[in-house]
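#onboarding

Welcome to the new folks! Below is a worked example of what a typical request in this channel looks like: someone posts a single protein sequence, and someone else replies with the predicted structure as tokens. Don't worry about understanding the tokens yet, we'll cover that in week two.

Example request:
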Amino acid sequence: MLKIHIIIPTHNRRALAERCLERVFAQTAIEAMSVTVVNDGSGDGTAGMLAASFPAARVIEGDGALWWTGAVAKALDALRPSFAANDFFLLVNDDTLLREDTVEVLVRESTRAGRAGMAPIAVDASSGRAISTGWGPGSGAILNDFEKARTVLREHNGLYEVHTLFGRCSLFPVEILERVRNYDAASFPHYYGDVDFGLRARKEGFHLFVTDATCIEVVENQAATGSHFTFRQGPQDFASVVENMTSIRSIENVPITWRYMRRHFRDRAGRNTASIAWRSLRQWRPIYKALGLSPLPQRGAAHSAQTQDEPRTATKAPLDRARPRMRQLLAPIFEAAFYLVYQTVRGSYRLVQWARRRGVARDGQPKKP
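Example response:
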């Protein structure tokens, strides 16, 4: 009989983890499941809660430096010797609430699709808005809109193919590890680890789908999810801008974004990384105030519509009318400058390498400095 190996990483989110595990152990497929929690150095009583309330769960302890991808990779390394030919592994984030049939349905749909990777549709637990569980070209407008997702899924027999799946709730057949290998914690310790794995799987010929046969809720704790959530709420000093561009807890980490883009979107790496860098730099106080910017919208937050009492653009001051246009112009100018700097550095490096090779070819040995 096949077995489904559930992996749940957690760090200092005891209440969320407890709610998540309550739903996991209430699954209709519980007899075919094993549950592994990676407790990455939590200091909030998570270890005691796991021992007292979920003794059937296997707990792997971390030192607090595993982050999300490292926790998943460590669990897979520990579990892989016990995998049988027809098994699956399912990643579940600790802020995710499953329906009682979620595991059973995902396995059924994966089997129906030829043992494909599978994720359910998702909604934000507080707002009820759709949250994407996978990515492909044009998928954002669909999977982040509940009605559009339902319509498209009906047209595709309940399965919407994507290029990668997000880690919040994604099922994979165990044989995927033979060709894709483990999650790359060295390159992507926290963000991009799940996306990178899915894109590598697709390159190896695996199909990945989102299904509406079941649905999950995401109880998002913005303060714990990532530093970028609070960073986007208003103008910041330069130290905060630099931290947001370099912190592992930020999805706008520029070096990691660059690494990801170079691996999967080489022809657009400079432009895409510049766009991510701009999201941090636009929050720097001088730019933010000069352009009259507003907080960036958060996932699940309702967009405020213009009221009848608000002045229309035509009645605003000239500077107010010019600001939207200035914003539109500044971002591509910055991105072009970033790309130009990148190409200059890259060209200089290649020129130095070429000169060194010529020196070796001419003299038969490298020149001494």
